[in-house]
Design brief:
By secondary structure, the protein is mainly α. It folds into two domains: 32 residues; 216 residues, MetI-like fold, CATH 1.10.3720.10. The protein contains ten helices and no strands. Helix 3 runs antiparallel to helix 4. The longest helix is centred in the C-terminal third of the chain and has 38 residues. It starts with a helix and ends with a helix.
């Protein structure tokens, strides 16, 4: 029954997308909108097919490499810091305010600073991606670790459980739903981080390709790169959602 409901949701989404593209195509044809300003979906798909060797064979993989490496490092670093703040009040009092302050500064304004420090190579793009994805990972996991039932913690203590056992058997499983919620947000932000960095300066990637297409008034090519970026973000979100069902829900049922 649950699978049927999910399939119906996906079906309605696909129908709405088809209707959206049909309306978009009809409006462009009806009002004769110039393709270099607002291209028709058919022009975008045609451009995607004609430029498939560049977009799919080169630039997509450049962007995906930046996104995946930045997201993985953000998860590792963010999870380690969240656990350190949970285990030590001193670390929390020192580090947590700086984590919050880092988000009060417009991230796009910090991107040129990171490029100045790390350069235009892969390390600079990974650093900007981490800047976009670090906050939701560390905050969601930290809040999740604190969300464990205090009565369960007291019960385990009375049964002689050590702090390490409580952490591994109770607090980690309890934090997984919060962690995956933050991960799904970070997964979509990672594409934005890599794209912005490529717009600022790069020699490859979908952001670089889109900037060059916009400068040459090649709107169909620009929209094609945006379409691929959107699909990449959706794929990463879906992967995070699958991992959530695979791990977080299993731990919930086991409890």
């Amino acid at each position: 029954m649950k699978g049927w409901a999910q399939g119906r949701t996906i079906g309605w989404f696909c129908i709405s997308m088809v209707l959206l593209f049909l309306i978009w195509e009809s409006v462009c044809r009806l009002f004769s909108l110039p393709p270099f300003i607002f291209p028709r979906p058919s022009d975008v798909l045609l451009s995607l097919w004609e430029l498939r060797e560049q977009l799919l064979g080169i630039h997509l993989w450049v962007t995906l490499r930046e996104v995946v490496l930045g997201l993985v490092l953000s998860i590792l670093f963010g999870a380690g810091l969240a656990m350190a703040m949970h285990m030590s009040r001193l670390v929390e009092r020192i580090v947590y305010p700086y984590i919050v302050i880092s988000q009060t500064i417009p991230i796009i304004a910090l991107s040129p600073v990171f490029i100045l420090w790390f350069g235009y190579d892969l390390s600079g793009k990974i650093a900007v991606t981490i800047l976009f994805t670090f906050f939701p990972v560390v905050v969601s996991l930290y809040d999740g670790l604190r969300a464990a039932d205090p009565d369960m913690i007291a019960l385990l203590k009375t049964m002689g459980a050590s702090r390490r056992q409580i952490f591994l058997k109770l607090q980690i499983p309890a934090s997984l739903p919060h962690f995956f919620s933050g991960l799904k947000v970070a997964a979509t932000f990672s594409v934005s981080g890599a794209t912005i960095d490529e717009w600022l300066g790069a020699s490859g990637g979908l952001g670089y390709f889109g900037r060059r297409a916009a400068g040459n008034f090649q709107a169909p090519a620009l929209f094609a790169s945006v379409l691929l970026l959107s699909l990449a973000g959706i794929a990463l979100f879906a992967l995070a959602a699958w991992a959530e069902k695979r791990f977080a829900h299993r731990h919930t049922h086991n409890q």
